């Protein structure tokens, strides 16, 4: 369980770093964009990242409650 959390943390870190570098290198000049175009690029509505984070929390809570009875 701990190994999985470490691996997932490292993968998420490098994915975030790659996304930041990609946006910084490949971004267009924002001065030519209108405000609604800038706002549209702020957040991806098709992303389910928050659901994945809640799912991880529920699974971790389940493991804790399961094993707290086994190891008092």
From TrEMBL:
Anoctamin transmembrane domain location: 28-72
Superkingdom per UniProt: Eukaryota
InterPro entries xref list: Anoctamin_TM
This protein's name: Anoctamin transmembrane domain-containing protein
């Amino acid at each position: 369980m701990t190994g999985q959390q470490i691996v997932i943390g490292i993968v998420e870190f490098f994915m975030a770093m790659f996304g930041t570098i990609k946006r910084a290198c490949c971004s267009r000049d924002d001065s030519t964009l209108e405000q609604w175009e800038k706002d549209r690029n702020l957040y991806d509505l098709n992303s389910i990242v928050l659901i994945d984070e809640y799912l991880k929390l529920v699974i971790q809570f389940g493991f804790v409650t399961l094993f707290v009875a086994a190891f008092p």
